[in-house]
Amino acid sequence: MKKIPETDTIFEHVFQQNQVSDDNPNSLRISIDSKAKVKIGNLSRGGKGRTLKAKEIDDHDHKWQTTLAPFGILNTQSDQLSIYLGQSTETSDFIVDCLVTWWTETETDYPQLEELVIDL
């Protein structure tokens, strides 16, 4: 990461804002992140498997059924991790769809919530 003169000040400000959120019972801080896409199919996996019996695989790994994009949402207070998989590329629509799904699944856990702070 390229460091600019303001880097330390920026990170100190982020740390302070995170602390304010963590200290506020009506605020929830989450961290979101996406990971490298995963190819799904009858692939060799480099000769490694997690089963007792070796699986039949395709000769070459140039064909796969689909590619999945993993996206995680971490509740920084409870360490609860939610992982979503999508077939789209990592777009703002995909990220928002994941956040909406997460909120729909968890909103009843936070009846007092007034603020959602998102760490990227």
Structure characteristics:
120 residues; alpha+beta; 5-stranded mixed sheet; 2 helices
Reconstruct the topology from this structure.
Blueprint: H1 7-23, E1 27-34, E2 38-40, E3 66-75, E4 81-86, H2 92-106, E5 115-119
Parallel strand pairs: 1-5
Antiparallel strand pairs: 1-3, 2-3, 3-4
Task: Count the E strands.
Answer: 5
Q: What is the rounded distance between the termini?
A: 15 Å
Helix content: 25-40%
Shape: extended
Main pleated sheet: 5 strands, mixed
Order of helices and strands: HEEEEHE
Description:
The protein is of the alpha+beta class. Helix content is 27%, strand content 27%. It has a domain at 24-40 and 64-120. It contains 2 helices and 5 strands, in the order αββββαβ. Strands 1, 2, 3, 4 and 5 form a 5-stranded mixed sheet that branches. Strand 3 (66-75) and strand 4 (81-86) form a beta hairpin.
In short:
By secondary structure, this protein is of the alpha+beta class.
